[in-house]
Design goal:
mainly alpha, Multidrug-efflux Transporter Regulator, Chain: A, Domain 2, 3 domains, 64% helix
Amino acid sequence: MTASHTTTPVSLTIGQLARRTGVPVRTIRFWSDEGLVPPSDRSAAGYRRYDAVAVARLDLVRTLRELGMGLEDVREVLARRRGVDEVASAHVRAIDEQIRSLRVQRAVCTLLAKGDHDERGMILMNDLARLSAAQRQQMIDEFVDEVFAGTDPEAPGAGIAQGMKMMPAELPEDPTTEQVRAWVELAELLGDPSFKARCREMAVTGTSGEFTQPSFYDPAAVLEHAEPARAAGVRPGSAEAEAVLGRIGVGDLAPDERVRVAETIETFSDRRVERYWELLGILNGWPPREAPPTVPAFEWVAAALRA
């Protein structure tokens, strides 16, 4: 009695191939039509037939597809225009991006589960979860490009432009709910026409050839002397406020100079812009800022100068 053994038939029908490989007939037919697993020949009645080479090719296509590779990548590998290692490396990068996206979605769902949101925030969080890292960065880049279009990056007062351009906002691989909330708030700022117009005003004024920072105006002195006065409730226009202006170095200015300094402060002081930097700090994982916001102190000085 001879030993029996299983061999691959010389030619298989599409149904036989489906039963042997476990791949549905409709999938094999689709891959055949796409040229990925072409039939070896056809029967006299015109039915597709597949040989051992086609079986091996089908196994490779199935493996690549189960790994998530697209049809074009599979086609490149089969045509030997790209090696499996090259396609796999590109696929690893794609998988990494999918993992990052899933982590963002998880953080968004965690935030939604806490119920700490309104309808607008929920929509923004949903949009955020669907954006890739590159698309999120593009939001920042487009905002900065539009705000600072046509300005001179080397001009005095261009520091805000350079700062915004050099500080990317990227969510970490495993974002916290606080970082997701920060991104939602940042997205609201970037989409606010009034905020964009305000930043544009700062950019144009700061990079104008006519702009000069008053030499007697010391921002550090404002924070040192004006912030305690503001926090203590000192009223702009009072004698005590005038004494504070004196310590800052602007108390003896002529009326027109006081107005000019006030205008300069008002142009470059905006709580939303300061919040923009705070949000970037949260997103980039910088140490939390211990000092209070600085803009209120400058607003107080501007009001005191005008009073």
